[in-house]
Amino acid sequence: MLDVKDLRLGFIAGRKTLAAVDGISFAIARGETFALLGESGCGKSVTAQGILRLLPAAGRVLGGSVHFADEELLALPEAAMRAWRGGRMAMIFQEPATSLNPVLTVGRQIGEVLERHRALTGEPARLRMLELLRQVGIADPERRLDEYPFQLSGGMKQRVMISIALAGEPELLIADEPTTALDVTVQAQILDLLVGLQAERGMGMLLITHDLGVVARMAHRIGVMYAGELVEVAGREDFFGAPRHPYTQALFAALPEVSRRGRKLVTIPGQVPSLAAMPAGCRFADRCPQVMAICREQSPDWRPVADGHQVRCHWQGTAAATAVAEPAAVAVEGDGAAFLKVAELKVHFPIRKGILQHTVGHVRAVDGVSLAIAPGRTLALVGESGCGKTTVGKALLQLIPPSAGSVVLAGSELVGLSGRRLRAARRQMQMVFQDPFASLNPRLRVGEIIAEGMAALGLATASAAQAAAVAALLQQVGLPAEAAERFPHEFSGGQRQRVAIARALAVQPQLLICDEPTSALDVSVQAQILNLLKTLQAELGVAYLFITHNFAVVEYLAHEVAVMYLGRIVEQGSAEEVLGAPLHPYTQALLSAVPVPRLGEGGQRIRLAGETPSPAKPPAGCHFHPRCPKATDLCRQTYPETTAASPTHRVACHWARLEARAVLIQM
Amino acid sequence: MRDFQIVILWSDVLVWLLLAAGIGVGVLIARSPPLLAAWRRVSANRIGMAAAIVLLAFIGVGLLDSLHYRPALESESRQERGQERQYAVEVLSLLDLLAIPLRTKNEKTYSAPFATRLYAMETLEVPGLGTVREFPRLKYGGSHLGEREDAVFADAGLTALRVGALAMLGWLALAGAAALAVGGWQTGGAWVGGWRRIWRGETAFAWNAVLATLAVILLVALPLFALAGQYHVFGTDKVGQDVLYQILKSVRTALIIGLVTTLVMLPLAVLLGIVAGYFRGWVDDLIQYLYTVLNSIPSVLLIAAAVLMMQVVIDTHPQWFATAAERADLRLLALCFILGIMSWTSLCRLLRGETLKLRELEYIQAAQAFGVSSWRIILRHILPNLMHIVIISLVMDFSSLVLAEAVLSYVGVGVDPSMTSFGTMINNARMELGREPVVWWSLAAAFAAMFLLVLAANLFADAVRDAFDPRVA
Fold first, then answer.
1. Is A439 within 8 Å of B371 when comparing Cβ atoms?
2. Collapsed DSSP state (helix, strand, coil) of residue A312
């Protein structure tokens, strides 16, 4: 149906044209999902924009052809193109929050498409809108139609976005990272919805993603992109069963998962070459473990390896030479005595209203969290967005003053401390932030950034000692010493995150709070950072509080896991217990919703309905009961006590308690 | 004994201090690579650089006009008696010295540009003809022509052509030097190579725009000044003063209003804006109430009240001032101060909003986690990241302040009436627009000069904004 041939897209930069997409060809048949997989900056999104002819102002189509149902799209005049966009091809964007117009009602935005492409207005249009909203699984569509986007949750917005895309009854749906901004449970809902709609309508789908799990769940055929080129195209069985390109193999090997615990992850050295300096030969040559002399001279041609499986590589081998599975250095086991103890920590933000700003209620961002971390251990704090996990991290550091509870660090109470004593306490505890682009001051040199903490806490104040300490830290995180003289914008995301880690380590803390340190990074870079964190833990005996929503990382890294829901910990225990035999229905649902980058995996999935409620108005009784498949009347009335299923495993659930008791009785 | 006495007006001190501060900031910028890179982007912007050259020309005039002195009075008798030398009451500047012909060749009243006769009829006694009503000859304008009054066009054209050719030669020399500098001294074809690169715009610095602007300035300014010795090129005003001279004098007033006012408002805006945004709470409330209240008062009324009060103070203390110039100068500074008090609010609001955004950024939180003190965070982390806004609004405010002065002087609450400014020029010319035939040149010249200054400032501000906008960088 869609046939892209040798498409070349570029950007005008000054007087040069940089090719962002360099000769890619693929075809999508009716009812088929073709996934474009690749890391950030490899040209996936530009390809989608090029097909729709929606390139940004500096973008240019340099050559090639895009055939859609025997029509050459690149040759159409702009006016005719408008009938195609939204009509026969539609697109879903990554960020549901920004792809809907906030000042128009949902109905107006769907109606726009219906009017343009289906010539429907008035009552028939309204009926069609209701039908569309029902199709994408929105309850009470009559009310939703007249609501504004801010009244909808993130998953709901993405559903509306999908219904807008479907309104023109497209034959091809282009989904650009449709679930990246969503939580796993919502992601599972949206992916199910897309699969269902596709089967129902026989649409073709171009899925753009960086997530191998989503690919495994959705795609029929997969194209792997690297630096503007397709390097491997395969059907799903071939792709997951026998990936041939070294890049694809490295992507799989870099994924953290439970089977790789205690081992170093395979990383891809180096970086994607910049558009301005593309190598003449194979573009992956500089990072390839299988590189040969010919790779640097000649760009490889397509080579079929199986039916429908093509690869662009000189290397004829099949499997990566048994990947370097060197064991990671084993962490020094502490004596087990908890070093940080958090008891009944609460952070409530007042909701103020009216002229006099009196408090009308509280957002219970953190509502009674108790944790303990031993030296050299990693505690993963897991939960969906908005559950308060980041607030816990900041409240521990006293960046946000806790409303109640206690934080005892190495025997001294932190809550209520101020001034000099708080500063001394902060030496023991530091934070690595989520976004390496926002966490480094762009106006300071890397050396100054790292030295700041030392200066503020009165360590190594002499400039010579400081410079030596900075050099040592840079070496520790694997950056060259001359990096100290450079500015953050000269570094890639992974390197910036290393700088952020070096800054935190500068004051020799015993606890590092890592707030989603890898969620803004690509898989191969994520592997580097995870390896680094593991090595540092082994060398320095640092304890980590690892705040994340990524279960693969948790499985790989964590010793203990705490699952948060709406400001409270619902389940807590060692990683094996929580991940292997989860007791709380929420943990079970979360685990089953995570898309696994393997075929035939899944078993039965537990699908959660709805989304996390607002922490300003948590449901009565157990917070989870509106979404819980096992909820009973008891759950609706009282919040469950925390019960111990084993000495280390605690869960707050009525149902799990009964289960556990039943198990005990049986024994 | 010297035959002049140096007079240092308060505004002169400020002007030269500003210049020194500007040079100091330039040195600091040269040390900070990201700022230097941003200014390099400014220097690559053709329109921006052309505007900068025009601005520099204006600033040059302003600086020349900011070196004041009092000439000695020619009274030999006193000198012989060994008395101290007396100095004139009139305070002159270096610019006045250079523009002596413009300053001294005053006519009786209005005369049109390049006129040889007055614009008003007078009754003259002509021997042999009795009383005649006619347009009398000007004392200075075109007096060298004698009887050949109809030869003005040819004479002026010839002079302009000659001086223009001279200007062209001077420009060629400049362009040659630039080409050599670009081409590099060592290579053989430095001249040609450098010239070709300039012409094609391949240089990092926008040489072609700079040279083109210089050519235009030289070709316009030099013939103009050459002609100004013989004619009143922009005509004369009601009291017969040369309009070109008034325009040159107005430049300093405009620059002082634009620069000193920003000097007053900048510390207020930056400090209060950052403090409000960073500390929040009651400090924020207080500052917000303050600027909301200030904003809600009609500014012209407040300025008028303040200026009138200042005027009363000045009038009741004549002993403070040795000369009229000092009095006018103080009033100018007072006006700057009042304008500054009135105009910090918008920048303050802007900076508060940006600080609110910045303080939630993770690198600020990381600094807080290290226990870095609040003032250090403000200085190291917040202020440098606000500098682009400050620079942009500085350059933008400059032009609006120059315009504000014109409006206030027009209303009558601006600078001292004895001080020349664009506003007073327009105010004086206002009445004459109603007469027939209309006296247009005073207004037109003031308008054109102000337009040029403000346009250059605005275009330069655009270039600066483009270069400093972090979304572009």
1. no
2. coil
Alpha helices in B133-280 (DSSP H): 152-183, 190-199, 207-228, 243-279
Rounded to whole angstroms, how far apart are CA atoms A281 and A279? 6
Tens of pLDDT, residues A342-354: 888 998 888 887 7
Q: Do A438 and B362 touch (CB under 8 A)?
A: yes
Find the DSSP H helices in A77-182. 78-84, 96-99, 106-113, 122-135, 141-144, 154-167
Task: Look up residue B358 and give its two tokens.
Answer: 């910045």
User: Residue A383, Cβ neighbours under 10 Å: how many?
Assistant: 26
Residue entry with tokens 């190598």: A279
Mean of the pLDDT values across residues B341-360?
90
What is the C-alpha to C-alpha distance for residues A69 and A30, in angstroms, rounded to an integer?
Answer: 10
Location of structure tokens 């320095």 = A540
> What pLDDT shows up at residue B473?
44
In a 13 Å sphere around the CA of A665, the CA atoms on its Cβ side amount to: 6
Number of H helices, E strands in chain A: 23, 24
Q: Compute the nearest-CA separation of B385 from chain A (Å).
A: 7
pLDDT above 60 for A515: yes
Residue A441 with chain B: CB contacts under 8 Å: 363, 380-381, 384-385
pTM comes to: 0.77
User: Exposure of B249 by Cβ count < 10 A (0-12 exposed, 13-18 middle, 19+ buried)?
Assistant: buried
Q: HSE of A289 in the Cβ direction (CA atoms, 13 Å)?
A: 20
Contact: B362, A456; criterion CB under 8 Å: no
Question: Which residues 374-403 on chain A approach chain B with CB closer than 8 angstroms?
Answer: 394, 397, 399
Contact B351, B273 (CB under 8 A): yes
Q: Cα distance from A483 to chain B (closest Cα, Å)?
A: 15
Q: Using the beta-carbon criterion (under 8 Å), do A452 and B370 form an inter-chain contact? A: yes
Q: Which of A217, A250, A214 is nearest to A232 (CA)?
A: A250
Q: What is the dihedral of CA B463, B465, B468, B470, to 10 degrees?
A: -130
The number of C-beta contacts closer than 8 angstroms across A and B is 63
Give the long-range contacts of residues B458-462, CB within 8 A, separation 24 or more.
B458/B51, B458/B396, B458/B399, B459/B47, B459/B48, B459/B50, B459/B51, B460/B48, B460/B51, B460/B52, B460/B55, B460/B395, B461/B392, B461/B395, B461/B396, B461/B398, B461/B399, B462/B47, B462/B48
Task: State whether residue A422 sits within 8 Å of chain B by CB.
Answer: yes
Which residues on B lie below 8 Å from A453 (Cβ)?
370, 372
Give B434's contacts (C-beta < 8 A, 6+ positions apart): none
- Kind of pairing between the strands at A650-652 and A642-644: antiparallel
Predicted confidence (pLDDT) at residue B234 exceeds the cutoff of 50: yes
Q: What ipTM does the predicted assembly reach? A: 0.76
> Are B366 and A442 in contact (CB < 8 Å)?
no
Answer for the pair A240, A251: CB distance below 8 angstroms, yes or no.
no
Taking the Cβ of residue B361 and every Cβ of chain A, the question of whether any pair is shorter than 8 Å is answered with yes
Query: Binning pLDDT at 50, 70 and 90, where does residue B73 land?
Result: confident
Residue of B nearest to A427 (CA): B370
CA–CA separation, A482 and A468 (whole Å): 12
What residues in A contact B366, CB-CB < 8 Å? 431, 433, 439, 500, 503-504
Which SS3 state, helix, strand or coil, does residue A221 take? Answer: strand
Q: Which two tokens stand for residue A607?
A: 């699908």
A442 CA: distance to closest CA in chain B (Å)? 8
- What 3-state class would DSSP assign to B105? coil
Q: How far is A503 from chain B (nearest CA, A)?
A: 9
Q: Which of B239, B292, B212, B306 is nearest to B105 (CA)?
A: B239
Q: What is the pLDDT of residue A322?
A: 47
Q: E strand or H helix at A6, and its extent?
A: strand A2-13
Of A399, A439, A504, the CB nearest to B363: A439
